[in-house]
Amino acid sequence: MDNYKEYEEKMKNNQKENKKYIMEFEEWLKKKNLTPKTIKNHVSNTELYIEDFLNYYDASSMEEGCYRIDEFLGDWYIRKCMWSTAGNLKTTAASIKKFYQCMLELGHIDQEHYDELQSTIKDNMDIWMEEIEEYNSDCFDDLDVFL
Q: Contact 91/83 with Cβ under 8 angstroms?
């Protein structure tokens, strides 16, 4: 029971901090003169990562998210997001990279964290794209049984 209470407390603290980070990110995007629709998409993609995924199993902080991107884009996103396609996986990765660039510029993470995130995305994107195509293909193959 203590572990669950610790998790809940950590998750609530993360959510409080994440709201601040998201607000800063949204302001940062506005200063880049992006359209409201683009801003909304980047914020939504980022919230999925830092609010849903990072709090899903063990309430990881935003900073820890720099080291968990492979778990998210290479597995969780593919399996848990029924709208996942190769195209929106790339878009989601771009949103997360922008978010962490903002966090770097605002001093919330250091260069080493940001570089790790960047290299993980760069080194694994082709693998993730293959995995999502295979996963979605298998899902559609399974649907043929019902049609």
A: no
